[in-house]
Amino acid sequence: MSKRLLIWVRPRATARCARFQHGPTSCARWSMLTLFWFYAGLITLYLGKHQSMKLISTAAAIAGLISLSPAPAKASEIIDIVQGKPQVVHIDLGAGGASHGDLMAFEAPFTGENGVVGVINGITFTIDVPDGKDRLFDRFGNILLNFGGGSSLVVGGGAVYSLGAGEMEPDTPQVRAIIGGTGRFIGARGQITTIRRSAGHYEHRIELLD
C-alpha cells in the first residue's frame, strides 16, 4: 500500500512545484517535505497517535532546518571577457602621498566571445595602506561594464593592489559582487572574478544568477 501511495505522491509533488515555477532546488525541497508528511501519516496510522508524536516532532524539526538552510547558488550564465591594459589616473586626496581616501579611476576596452566588445570604467578609493611588512593596498569601489546598446553590468566591492604599481596583484583571483545592470542585464546579480596577468591584460569571469 505504501509503495503505491509513494508512486502517487512523488509525481504530484513535483507537478505542483513546477506549476508554481519553482527552481530545481526549491522543487527538491518541496518534494522532500511532501514525502515527509506522507510518511508521518503512515507512522501515525501504524503506531498510533501517542507513540508516533515524539518521533514525528523530532523529524519535523530536522526537516524544518533543512528547508530553511540556504542552498548554494549556481550561475545560470557565464561570460568570459579579456580586458586590455587600463589607462589609470591617481588623485592624491587628504594627507600627502599614499593615504586613506586616495582616488583611482581607470578605463579600458574589453572583448569576449561571439564578437562581444565593450568598455570597462571604474573608480576606487583607498581604504587601507601598507603598514610594516604589508605591501598591499586595499581599495573599494564601483565598476561599470558597458556592453553597448544600453546593456551594462555594475560591480561593487573591494580588491587588493600592489604597492607602487597601482594595479592588482598579478595572477591572484579577486572576486567582487555584481549588484545590478541595465538592458539585457536588468536586475542582474552574481559575481565577477578578475585576474591580472603579468603581460598587463585582465581576465574576467562573470557569473550571473537567475
Could you give a short description of this structure?
The protein is an alpha+beta fold. The chain has three helices and nine strands; from the N terminus they run αααβββββββββ.
Structure description:
The chain is built from three helices and nine strands; from the N terminus they run H-H-H-E-E-E-E-E-E-E-E-E. The protein is α+β, with helices and mostly antiparallel strands. The chain has an eight-stranded antiparallel beta barrel with strand order 1-3-4-5-6-7-8-9. Helix 1 runs antiparallel to helix 2 (24-47) and helix 2 (24-47) packs antiparallel against helix 3. The radius of gyration is 26 Å and the shape is globular. The two termini are 40 Å apart.
Unreliable sequence segments = 1-22
**Rough shape?**
globular
Q: Structural class per helix/strand content?
A: alpha+beta
First CA to last CA: what distance?
40 Å
Helix content: 25-40%
SS field, number of helical segments: 3
Order of helices and strands: HHHEEEEEEEEE
Record field, number of beta strands: 9
